[in-house]
Automatic annotation (TrEMBL):
Keywords: Membrane, Transmembrane, Transmembrane helix. This is SAM domain-containing protein. SUPFAM superfamilies: SAM/Pointed domain. The lineage of its organism: Eukaryota, Viridiplantae, Streptophyta, Embryophyta, Tracheophyta. GO terms for molecular function: protein transmembrane transporter activity. CDD domains: SAM_superfamily.
Length: 256
C-alpha cells in the first residue's frame, strides 16, 4: 500500500517539476533578453521596447474590439449640414475615436502602450530608476499621442492633446501612489529569505530602491561575494550605486 502511495505521489510531482523547470527556463530567457537589451544604445533599446509593447497593445486592443463589436454602428451620425461646422462634427469624431472596431482599438492601444513604454524606457535609462516622475511623464506623452492619433483633438488638437496628456498623467500618478501604498502593506514573500543580507546591505547604503533589481536578476545572498560590475550593470543598477555596493562587499570580505 505504501509503495502504491509513493508511486502516486511521484506521478503527481512529475508535472509540477516539469512546470517549475519550464518556468525557470522562461525566467532565464527573460533575464537574458533584458540583459542583452540593457547593453544596447539608448535609441535601439527605446525603439525595441516601443515596438514590442505596441504590438502587444495592438493585439489586446483588437481582441477587445472584437469582443465589444463596432459600437460606432449604433451611434448617431452627424447631419449632412454639420460637415461645414467643425464644432458640430467634433463630438461625433471623438466618440468614434474611442468606440470603434478592432482596427480602431488596436491603433489606440498600440499608441498608448507603445509611447508609454518608450518614454518610460528613456526616462529609466537617463535617471537610473523607475519612480513617480518617470511614470507621470510617460503617461502624459501617451495621453497626448493618443489624442493626436485618434483624432479626438477636434478643432484645437494641441489644446486637447495637452488636456488628454494631463488626465493620463493624473490617473497614472494616482495609480502609482496607490500601488506603492498597497505594496508597503504586503507581507514579505517566501523568497525574501534569500535576500535578507542583500536588503540589509542596500538599506545601510541607502539604496533600498534597488532591491527589486537584485530579485529581477536572481542575485540572492549567496551571490554577493561573486558580484561584479557587469553583473550589477546587467540588472540596470547605475554606476554610482554599483561602486558603493562593490566597495561595501569588498570591505566586508576584508573585515569579516
Amino acid at each position: 500500500m505504501e509503495k502504491g502511495n509513493e508511486k502516486v505521489m511521484s506521478l503527481v510531482q512529475l508535472p509540477q517539476k516539469a512546470i517549475k523547470d519550464v518556468q525557470f527556463k522562461l525566467k532565464e530567457l527573460e533575464n537574458g533578453y533584458k540583459s542583452w537589451l540593457a547593453k544596447q544604445p539608448l535609441p535601439v533599446e527605446a525603439a525595441i521596447v516601443t515596438a514590442t509593447t505596441a504590438i502587444n497593445g495592438a493585439a489586446i486592443g483588437a481582441f477587445l474590439g472584437v469582443m465589444t463589436q463596432d459600437l460606432t454602428s449604433s451611434l448617431p451620425t452627424p447631419p449632412p449640414q454639420s460637415s461645414l461646422n467643425p464644432d458640430a462634427v467634433a463630438p461625433f469624431q471623438q466618440v468614434q475615436a474611442v468606440a470603434g472596431g478592432p482596427l480602431v482599438q488596436a491603433r489606440n492601444f498600440a499608441v498608448i502602450t507603445g509611447v508609454n513604454a518608450g518614454i518610460s524606457c528613456v526616462m529609466k535609462r537617463l535617471r537610473g530608476k523607475e519612480d513617480l516622475q518617470s511614470s507621470v511623464v510617460a503617461a502624459f506623452g501617451s495621453g497626448a499621442a493618443f489624442s493626436l492619433v485618434s483624432g479626438m483633438g477636434g478643432a484645437n488638437p494641441a489644446a486637447n492633446a495637452f488636456t488628454s496628456g494631463l488626465l493620463f498623467a493624473i490617473f497614472q500618478g494616482c495609480s502609482f501612489k496607490i500601488g506603492e501604498m498597497w505594496q508597503s502593506t504586503q507581507r514579505p514573500t517566501a523568497d525574501d529569505v534569500y535576500y535578507a543580507r542583500t536588503r540589509g546591505m542596500l538599506d545601510k547604503l541607502g539604496l533600498q530602491n534597488y532591491t527589486k533589481n537584485f530579485k529581477r536578476g536572481l542575485l540572492t545572498d549567496s551571490t554577493l561575494p561573486l558580484l561584479t560590475d557587469s553583473a550589477l550593470r546587467d540588472v540596470r543598477i547605475p554606476p554610482g550605486p554599483r561602486l558603493l555596493i562593490l566597495d561595501h562587499i569588498q570591505r566586508s570580505v576584508n573585515c569579516p
